[in-house]
Amino acid sequence: MTLPRDIPAKAFTSLTLHDYPTRPMLQTPQNDPRTASQSDSSPAVVANAGGSTTVYFGPAQPRGMQRGHWSQTMRGKGWFLCLRLCSPVEYSSPENGESVRLRW
Fold this sequence. Notes:
The protein is mostly beta strands.
C-alpha cells in the first residue's frame, strides 16, 4: 500500500491491523502489527524519495524490507486495516485545489 505525500496529520499517522471477527489488534509473532510515522514498539516508516510512503502486509517480511514498513498478517486469519490521523488538519486536494477539512 502506498500512501500519498503530505498526509493531513500534524502529529502522526498509524496503520494498525485488527482481527476481523473480534476487532482487537491482530495477534501475531510480530507482537505489534502496525506501521507508523513515529517510533514506538517498532521503527518509524521512512518516506520514499517523492514523499509517499509504502508499507507491506503479509505473513513474512519481504527480503530487504525495513521492519517499520511491514506489518505481519497470519495465514487463514481475516483482518482489516485502520488508518489513524493524529491531529488532522485542513488539506488542499492536489487534483482540484479544493480544501477539505477533516472533521471527527
